[in-house]
Amino acid sequence: MTELLIALNPAEDSRLGYLLRIPQPDGDLLFRTSGTWPRIKALYCHPVSLAEWPDDADVVERLPLRSCQRRGASIDLILHRGRENRSQLVFTSARGRDVVFWQSPRTRKQARPSVRTPTARAQGIEQLPILVDSHERYAYRFTGQQATTETRALPCGDYGLNVDGQLVASVERKSLADLVSSLINGRLRFQVADLAALPRAAVVVEDRYSQLFKLDRVRPAIVADGLAELQVRWPSVPIVFCETRPLAEEWTYRFLAAAHSWATTESAALQRISDARIDIAVPAPTADGPSTADVRAWARSAGLPVPDRGRLRPEVWQAWRDAHPSNP
């Protein structure tokens, strides 16, 4: 009878404390892994040469196999026992490199919740134009949504919304590892501060909040306290946990669609109910109006502070219009 063998890893400095030996017709496979069974989460398995199996291996689990079959990019394992008798080794890729995960039906269900994301148009928009930051690696494609994408360098966030030439909404995407590292090194604080300058912005995380408390390289309380501090300091930028990457992509699409609907209708509504002028987005000057260079020169002559290059602030354009009421 074939057996699945799990032994202690003799390398004491390794974070993967076990050796997993899988029998195969053309030669056994050997992996380093961090546990004896994928009970709570899928276990990462690092493939190594069979020569690393010690002659005097300290075997901690010797599990008789009822079935061990390779099916495409996975190996299905069925044990001779009543409970926890099914698992699977999955050969996949992550961040551009080949990886192997050992998962059970329970952890597979957690990783892929039984939900189907809707395909209906968000906010009734036929094709939502979404800007994708040029520095974004493995970007969302929004292939299942009614959206088009355009790659452009964004001042903040990974996915943005341009209305009348102005960035009115942005979403910063984070994996759990990126969220934790950017929080620890302080980069996340600056990113959230930049997002808070926009009318609408958010941070979306491709994981569960509960996974924060399973971290082993940093104290979970430090991460939880840091996220709570960011939310208190910049309450206009929510941090949303969306379980998986597809759900985070769906949430980003819906958020930007809602921001588009707000930006294109709220301005007119505010003008109707308020005596003060409220500009949400400043349209680009028309061909009949002044150029940016003309307004920049006028502002300098009027003693207004303006940058040497780039866009002018809305109040500078408004000051020019107030000073030239007869001009378009």
UniProtKB/TrEMBL annotation:
<dbReference type="InterPro" id="IPR006166">
    <property type="entry name" value="ERCC4_domain"/>
</dbReference>
<dbReference type="InterPro" id="IPR055370">
    <property type="entry name" value="Lsr2_DNA-bd"/>
</dbReference>
<feature type="domain" description="ERCC4">
    <location>
        <begin position="129"/>
        <end position="209"/>
    </location>
</feature>
<dbReference type="GO" id="GO:0016746">
    <property type="term" value="F:acyltransferase activity"/>
</dbReference>
<protein>
    <submittedName>
        <fullName>ERCC4 domain-containing protein</fullName>
    </submittedName>
</protein>
<dbReference type="GO" id="GO:0003677">
    <property type="term" value="F:DNA binding"/>
</dbReference>
<keyword id="KW-0238">DNA-binding</keyword>
<dbReference type="InterPro" id="IPR036625">
    <property type="entry name" value="E3-bd_dom_sf"/>
</dbReference>
<dbReference type="InterPro" id="IPR011335">
    <property type="entry name" value="Restrct_endonuc-II-like"/>
</dbReference>
<dbReference type="GO" id="GO:0006259">
    <property type="term" value="P:DNA metabolic process"/>
</dbReference>
<dbReference type="GO" id="GO:0004518">
    <property type="term" value="F:nuclease activity"/>
</dbReference>
<dbReference type="Pfam" id="PF02732">
    <property type="entry name" value="ERCC4"/>
</dbReference>
<dbReference type="Pfam" id="PF23359">
    <property type="entry name" value="Lsr2_DNA-bd"/>
</dbReference>
